């Protein structure tokens, strides 16, 4: 039997309205964007400010109850933080039992889209939003699971190639938030410039303005040894990840740029 992709439910606050054809709600798509984003921006309300707070944090999707769950399955988001930070304290003090409400944003830029007119310029991108409630992880086993998940999310197999498990002081100073995801959405743009038909029909304009896409991707550079590093060569697991991640990022950006150019009548290239 073919597997049916799971999707997050559409809510008024999570539904993509503008350019809705670019919206995706599949768990697999959203989770992959989140897991490959090195920095997540977490927004939440605080009682002492009229403005929402936003923090850059690291995190990863996972399921402690089902560790082998696929990225397209229902999962929680684990976030790493300091034990006495504001966001941890607010989550700990949540009185409704559900946790601290928050919105998590992840985004990748895959290309700069250059069109005939400034208003039709755009970016190729993959963006995702998750909406959920966060509570601190109190079970030591789940906390260790989440810490390894987040560490290996940055560099696969890094956890086992370090001094583990963390000692008592490290465990006490580190906090992990588990975000029970209520819903989420993604918005993705690929392809070339989408200019007005009138501009595309202007031969003189086309003759003097270059149009197309400059692919953009994040590159993991050559590792720089630390001041007390004594290993002569970069470990294979690190070099394999670096090369594989760079190749995949380049492939995604170039494929997004090569998609067939569409001419949008009366629409700008958001």
From TrEMBL:
Coiled coil: none annotated. Pfam families: Pyridox_ox_2 (PF12900). Residues 242-270 are annotated as: Disordered. InterPro entries: Pyridox_Oxase-rel (IPR024747), Split_barrel_FMN-bd (IPR012349). It comes from Schizothecium vesticola. This is Flavin-nucleotide-binding protein.
């Amino acid at each position: 039997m073919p597997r049916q992709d799971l999707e997050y439910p559409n809510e008024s606050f999570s539904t993509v309205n503008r350019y809705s054809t670019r919206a995706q709600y599949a768990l697999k798509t959203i989770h992959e964007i989140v897991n490959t984003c090195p920095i997540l921006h977490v927004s939440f309300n605080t009682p002492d400010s009229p403005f929402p707070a936003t923090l850059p944090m690291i995190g990863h999707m996972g399921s402690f109850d089902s560790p082998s769950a696929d990225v397209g399955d229902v999962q929680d988001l684990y976030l790493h933080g300091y034990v006495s930070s504001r966001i941890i304290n607010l989550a700990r003090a949540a009185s409704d039992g559900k946790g601290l409400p928050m919105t998590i944003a992840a985004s990748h830029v895959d290309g700069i889209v250059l069109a005939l007119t400034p208003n039709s310029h755009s970016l190729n991108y993959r963006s995702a939003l998750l909406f959920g409630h966060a509570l601190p992880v109190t079970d030591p086993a789940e906390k260790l699971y989440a810490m390894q998940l987040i560490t290996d999310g940055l560099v696969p197999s890094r956890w086992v190639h370090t001094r583990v498990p963390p000692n008592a002081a490290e465990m006490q100073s580190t906090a992990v938030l588990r975000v029970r995801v209520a819903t989420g959405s993604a918005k993705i743009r690929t392809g070339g410039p989408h200019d007005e038909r009138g501009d595309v029909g202007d031969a003189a304009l086309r003759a003097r303005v270059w149009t197309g896409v400059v692919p953009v991707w994040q590159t993991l550079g050559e590792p720089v040894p630390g001041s007390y590093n004594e290993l002569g060569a970069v470990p294979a697991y690190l070099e394999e990840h670096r090369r594989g991640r760079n190749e995949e990022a380049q492939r995604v950006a170039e494929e997004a740029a090569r998609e067939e150019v569409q001419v949008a009548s009366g629409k700008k290239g958001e």
